Inverse folding.
């Protein structure tokens, strides 16, 4: 049965317009993006198949172009659309950070870092460089590692902070496993970075670890 023949309240697009996007399942959201299905499969059925095949909606969002286009019902046009949507989300969130001091909107900071880091296939260490009023100067990925580690060099972080004339930093990295819980090494490198930054009178405000749909803040846990 095609989606057009479904009751209006069950159709993903009509449901979104009626009750909002937050009420839709991952498959329904993906179906709206896909717009059409395949012979014998509605867009929702295709979306469910893709999510089952790749494990989650998040896994689909982080596919390489080659892997994305190899999936049934997807291709270069859809990959371009998805890339554009993700980039618009990142720019929207960054604009919000540019308009107010970062410390006044911690949830916005977390959302921005999730948009930047969550779907990267390798661990990436990045920093938000802030002025003395904690307004955003720049976001910069600094180190990238293997699937589960990134070498972090405190001297390079200090150099980047001085180059941006930053008064404070929020550092962040992702866990490609999807689990945001910080490791012992995460805590150790944070201590080393804090000591290195203290030497040049730059404050380390937080270290945010990004997982799949979750974040952990060192500051909120009282570790900074």
């Amino acid at each position: 049965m095609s989606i057009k023949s479904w009751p209006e309240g069950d159709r993903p697009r009509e449901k979104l317009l009626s009750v909002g996007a937050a009420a839709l399942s991952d498959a329904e959201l993906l179906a709206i993006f896909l717009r059409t299905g395949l012979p014998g499969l509605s867009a929702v059925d295709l979306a469910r198949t893709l999510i089952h095949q790749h494990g989650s909606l998040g896994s689909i969002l982080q596919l390489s172009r080659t892997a994305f286009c190899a999936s049934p019902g997807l291709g270069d046009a859809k990959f371009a659309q998805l890339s554009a949507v993700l980039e618009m989300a990142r720019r929207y969130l960054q604009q919000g950070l540019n308009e107010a001091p970062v410390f006044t909107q911690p949830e916005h900071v977390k959302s921005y870092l999730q948009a930047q880091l969550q779907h990267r296939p390798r661990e990436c260490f990045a920093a938000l460089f802030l002025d003395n009023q904690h307004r955003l100067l720049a976001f910069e990925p600094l180190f990238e590692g293997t699937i589960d580690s990134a070498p972090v060099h405190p001297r390079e972080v200090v150099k980047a902070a001085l180059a941006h004339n930053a008064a404070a930093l929020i550092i962040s990295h992702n866990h490609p496993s999807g689990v945001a819980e910080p490791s012992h090494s995460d805590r150790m490198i944070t201590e080393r970075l804090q000591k290195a930054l203290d030497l040049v009178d730059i404050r380390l405000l937080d270290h945010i670890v990004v997982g799949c749909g979750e974040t952990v803040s060192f500051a909120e846990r009282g570790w900074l």
In short: The mean pLDDT is 88. Residues 76-98 form the longest helix (23 residues). The radius of gyration is 20 Å.
